[in-house]
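Appendix B. Chain record.
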Amino acid sequence: MIKYFLAVVLSLHCACAYAESRPNVLWIYLEDVSGWLSCYGETLIETPNFDRLAARGIRFDRFYTPAGVCSATRSATIVGAMQTSFGIHNHRSGRPDFRGQTMGAAFDDIR
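Structure tokens predicted for this chain:
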């Protein structure tokens, strides 16, 4: 019985140590919001949930866009490369044969 108890305790300890070593990332990507969140000083619109997230985490106050349209900017931001390097130039362009690394696979490399 003690062997099983020790095995469970050791397993839980290893699982907790593994969980703590991985980053805890919540990425919320909004488009066309500008600074219209109260955590950025907006007084007309109240956004208490975003304010709490901003207070407990990292709030960015600058964003430089690599493209003039949202879909190309979103593609570049998510992939982490200039959108032209994988064929995105406007709303309709793209490469269906592109099989880049997913965000989940990128986080697997962080261990």
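Further analysis of this model is presented in Appendix C.
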